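Hi U.,

Before I forget, here's the chain from the pilot set. I'm dumping it here mostly so it's searchable later in email.
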Amino acid sequence: MSSISSLSSLLSTSSSAASTSSTSSTSSASTSTTTADFLSLLATELQNQDPTDPTDASELMSQMMSFASYAQQTEMNSSLLSLQESVSSIAESLSSATASAA
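Structure:
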């Protein structure tokens, strides 16, 4: 069961690292957990679990749902950052156009 807690702590660490590094996209990309990483950890967890105390199916589903939620949040964060950059670019264009017209 310690592998479940270590997987949960890895996901929460990656989630906080991705959210705190919103100013640097390269930093969040290098510290975030990818889907392949998650599936690899999950497969390793299942292969190395104690046969006398197997992982509870509800805990396994909880982990999978937590990662799905995390993945959606990081995708939404990158979309919002892109939108913010676009709005800033438009605002800069408008302000320079207004300044040159005056």
